[in-house]
Amino acid sequence: MKKLHAPASNLCIPYTMKTNTKNSEKLRTTWSVLKSLAFLFLLIPVIYVFCSLRFVDLFCFCTKQDFTTHHRSDIILSPPGLPRTDQGHDPHEPPEIKTNLSHVVFGIGASAKLWDHRKNYIKIWWRPNETRGFVWLDKHVKTEADEKKLLPPLKISNDTSKFTYKNLEGHGSAIRISRIVSETLRLGLEDVRWFVMGDDDTVFVPDNLVRVLKKYDHNHYYYIGSTSESHLQNIQFSYNMAYGGGGFAISYGLAKALEKMQDRCIQRYPGLYGSDDRIQACMAELGVPLTKEQGFHQFDVYGNIFGLLAAHPIAPLVSLHHLDVIEPIFPHMDRSRALQRLTLPMKLDSAGLMQQSICYDKTRRWTVSVSWGYAIQIFRGILTARELEIPARTFYNWYPKADYKGFAFNTRPLGKSPCQYPFVYYISKAATTTASCDDDAQNNQTIFSVYSLDKSPHPHCNWKMEDPSRIDKVEVYKKPNPYIWEKSPRRNCCRILPTQDNGTMVIDVGECSEDEIIEFR
């Protein structure tokens, strides 16, 4: 009898079941590992985002040692050349005080021969107990007791006879004046950031000077001023030179470097003419360029500077010079009285002094140019802003034989025809008014100023349009803004306001609104 055998497949059942069980366990293990890896890969970017946003500090593994491979949200990289704002500041120390007038020391170059006359110019702008500085003279002068409170202290310059001076057209006092900054530095005054040079016939606007200087770091090397109005003067001396009469500023850091080498430098330039070109020669050896600021005015011109002042650059007015050479800035009065008149608007809103704004009387087709704190011009017809921002030639070149091409800037004729000669209104009074109903009185002050028509005769005009001479006075309302120069430069706007008085024009002057432009339409 044959022995029955079970089918082979049946014989393998126990083994196959065991194998399948092992494979299932492996698959489950592999799947668990893959899920864990996937979860880990998903977790890493989540942790990174949390760490970046500083939501969970626990997961941030960034340290100062490995910040190149881990994100640090609390490290702020400054652009090259700018200080890091996250380092070196002690939170317990107060922030550095911004540059103010107490940080500026003036050095005024003067001579005993002209002192009795020119000291009156210094009295106009000098502020006792506020401004700091000295008048440096060639020899002792007599000063009245009551004048000592109105003027800077007087000092006698050191002897400069050891230095060689060979310029046949100049005077050896140039060497003495060129050393004023160094001599002032040697006095060892505390808390000085800027040394400002000027002449005894220079009038400064101190607040505007500070507005210019506070833009710059006094620890670095800065040589700040402006060039001459005469192209030929700049060619003869240098377009890289700050003219001393218009004034220039030297930072404390640069003054220290200058003092160390100036005497050696002066010896190398015996043939130079003046003090300011000797200073510039030393600046060249120190490798320091002129930082030009348009508000410093040398005024190397003759005659009436009305055209220059009525179209002042869009920059704070810092200085006026050559006051004995140019005509009084206001007509029918002497130079000192004319400058005294300017001090009133200077006190009320020095930042806005001489700033030009342009607008149109559309009904009468007049163009109006306001040089705030100084004068207003009314023109028949429509003149563009591009024309009016160019100074009118009311003055003459420093070199009599030079024509209008001899200026270092664009100029224009007074008018294209006698009918377009301006009617000029000079400031006669100004005062500050405050809105009494407002708690914030300081920020709601308005300056009310009046400008009276200059009665000088006008040429005959046959244009059939209304004559501006019917306007006897112009009233201007303006809100002062001492911080306007901390913004990007922009001309103010003016608006003609309605009035019932036929002999008066009323104007509002202020910052231009976003979409406001100077156009006639």
Automatic annotation (TrEMBL):
Segments passing through the bilayer: 36-56
Domain of life (superkingdom): Eukaryota
Keywords: Membrane, Transmembrane, Transmembrane helix
GO-annotated molecular function: acetylglucosaminyltransferase activity
PANTHER family listed in its UniProt record: FRINGE-RELATED
Record protein name field: Uncharacterized protein LOC108981701
Name of encoding gene: LOC108981701
